[in-house]
Specification:
9 helices; mainly alpha
Length: about 240
């Protein structure tokens, strides 16, 4: 068995990689200019009714969502708090250094929309499967999934579409990219989880590093049966 230090080191590498992918994919979605991400519809909608910035609205929503997740039995961890604050810093870094070149080409923007969605959701999945703690919004998704028995993909899509609806009612902007992300994010995250589980089973030294969320339905996989909790893991 790998020693605890190596397992935890690889978990943190996976988590930080997930943070970068999530932030980079989010910036690609912004540069696509085809509609803000689903949760940002809600954040902007809130600013239409409260004297707060979009960033502050995002933090307020994050704390409320995390509180709901705690009520559903999900324990926040250091990784959860880092997720809340680091993603924004990494996005600023990507934008400041022009790591996603701007383009007025419709074809390039459409490519950004699709690739950004795939990269962002790969980042979301790796942060969850590092087993160190999911972000506030994904903690809520996992908590509700455990209570309802819904599949991860269906629950994530339901939550994304729900916040788009509420945000739209509050006056938040909705575009083609918004609807695209809300519809496909759930199934994509679930497929990524299935892929990571197959990698975990195939690569021995990753068997204790990758940890799918326990007690949730992901494709045909039952994580509580197929794997043990990794040291220090927490979802």
């Amino acid at each position: 068995m790998p020693d605890r230090f190596r397992v935890m080191s690889l978990k943190w590498v996976l988590l930080l990689l997930g943070f970068f992918l999530l932030a980079y994919g989010s910036v690609m979605g912004i540069e696509a200019s085809m509609g803000v991400a689903p949760w940002h519809v809600l954040h902007i909608g809130i600013t239409n009714h409260l004297a707060v910035s979009v960033g502050r609205a995002s933090q307020i929503v994050g704390f409320v969502v995390l509180a709901l997740a705690v009520m559903l039995g999900v324990r926040p961890s250091l990784a959860t708090w880092l997720n809340m604050f680091m993603i924004g810093f990494i996005m600023d870094f990507v934008i400041a250094f022009g790591l996603v070149p701007r383009s007025t080409s419709l074809a390039v923007r459409a490519l950004y929309l699709v690739l950004g969605m795939l990269i962002m959701n790969l980042g979301i999945t790796t942060t969850i499967c590092a087993g160190l703690g999911a972000g506030p919004r994904d903690s809520l998704m996992l908590g509700v999934t455990r209570r309802t028995g819904w599949r991860v993909g269906a629950m994530k899509s339901f939550l994304e579409c729900s916040v788009v609806g509420v945000g739209f009612i509050l006056g938040g902007p909705v575009g083609l990219g918004t609807l695209f992300n809300a519809a496909v994010t759930g199934p994509v995250v679930e497929r990524y989880m299935v892929l990571l589980e197959r990698i975990r089973r195939s690569v021995p030294f990753l068997s204790d590093v990758i940890k799918l969320p326990s007690s949730v339905r992901i494709g045909g996989i039952t994580p509580t049966v197929t794997q043990q909790a990794a040291p220090g893991g927490n979802t």
